[in-house]
Amino acid sequence: MNRNVTWITSAAIFVAVVLFGVRWSSGIMNKGPVLDEKYITVPINDIITKGWTVETAIDFQETKGPAMIWQYAFFGKMLGGTLNDLRLISVWSSLLCLVLLTWVAVRSAVYRKNLYYIAIGWLLIPYNLVFSEIVMGEVSFLLLSLFAVVAFIWGIEENAPKYRRFVAPLLYCVAVSVALHSRIHVVALTGGICFTAFALLGLRSWPWWVASVLAGLLRIPLWMRWGGLVSPEYQTLHGLGFRLESLSYLAGAMVPFVGVFAIEGWRIAKSRLFLIISFCIGVLLVLSAMPDLVVPSGDIDYVNNNDRFQGIAATLVKRISLNGAVQQGVLALLAGVGLAGLAGLWVCKDRARIVGSITFWSLTFGWLLYAMTRGFVFDRFLLTWAFLLPIVWFKILPKRLLIPQYVLLTVIAAWLSVTWL
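Given the sequence above, the corresponding structure tokens read:
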């Protein structure tokens, strides 16, 4: 274990060098607000300048919850309160995420120098490098999600002391409850953990189900105060509804995350019918419910309900062709590959054991839950359920697939960094 600690430390230093290197060399420190920073920093700066009141700390207007806003406001004031000070919190949050991820990796039988694959994978998950450099809600949310996963794995380890059976679900409940007060996406992770717990423990998994339900109940007061999933001003952009177009788009957006598993799943599957059916479902989804990829010009409309589908998948489709029929065909192909990749992850998941199961169920539940939403849908939402993928990629993929996957992700990370940093 001591040697693994050394390698974890080494991997963390490597990631720190990359993150601070990007911070100092990319030009982001000389830029004003990028992406959603101009919205997110408003309630953060209000707390820093006006102090902690009900109005500034709870009744603010943002899509992110208090858990995210409070973290940046508290540490941001300590650091100085400038935009670059707030961005530094994202850098350190990402670094802490990597430490927790490598802890999970060691528990998943990834040892010593192989932890560098996990560190590199962490940097290459689509959008993660960019969000580690700016003020966005994802990185701090992933930190809370990783705490929940760590509590779960710590609690179910073989030969663990009996007290962990009670302490671990309690810690998990706290982490999930706080994460729910950051963003609602953690619901899919709780489903993934509970299904994994049941597969491993059967009826003895009940503490994890109870902890998840209790964490959800603790979110109700904020829901009632806001009157919805997000603060009142943003409820036309994010809310409950029914829309197959969300499933169509996110299925296509899954390709850089899990598409590679379609290849490995096809190779090892005893029956390939599941992968074929999944591919066909993805294609048929887009053919029957094609999302509108046109982004409205001008300012965001906060009064009327409006949809928006943006990200890597939409950009790729629109760059290939401006013809609507061609765009539908390309997105249908992407959606087919995306769902086939998700099916391939199911076929291969036992190689990654616990993290493979959590990742499959989290992505599946997260994808399905978006059928019950309206408003904006972005590729980056998948990141909230894909944070264990560096371990899953390493455990499942042979080197002949892992290396091309990392090359593809490097190209995507470089493109996003040049675009936003």
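The chain has 21 helices and three strands. Try to locate this feature in the token string yourself.
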